[in-house]
Task: structure prediction
Amino acid sequence: MVCGVNVTPLILLLAIGFHSIFEGIALGMTDNEGIFINLMIGVALHHIAATISLGVSLGQHQVNSKKAIFLIFFGLSLIEPAGIGIGIGLSDSPEFVESIVMSLAGGTFVYIACSEILVHEFEDKQHRYLKFFFFILGSAAITLLWFLNSQHSHSH
Ligand SMILES: [Zn+2]
Result:
């Protein structure tokens, strides 16, 4: 993207949509209940952040139609379950397929965060240090989850 000149809600929407479908497929292919629950918690947490970002972006671009906003979020909420359905259908496929799908889900999310949200947020010079502080805080919280998670899986 052209260095986040302005985050078009449409690109953000497409990126989140792509991310959700791959993530849903990866979730659907998971056959371990514990891993599935951990993933669900992670999904719920980062999707709160993603949908707030999308909401802010829609607001900044004066998308005021209640109908459009409803359709966008309603449509988005259907993509992940659809992906899960596809994933369940693919659950017999070899393990590397799940790895590829999971990588696509992770990669698209890193793209969303770095190219569509962070660049745009830090371009605005106001409250930069505060934003940076919360960026570090958020990264630390997610890293902590990862540590808790890996400890949990080692105990089995
Ligand atoms: Zn996600």
Observations:
- The chain is about 85% helix and 0% strand.
- Residues 125-156 form one domain.
- Confidence is low (pLDDT under 50) at residues 1-5.
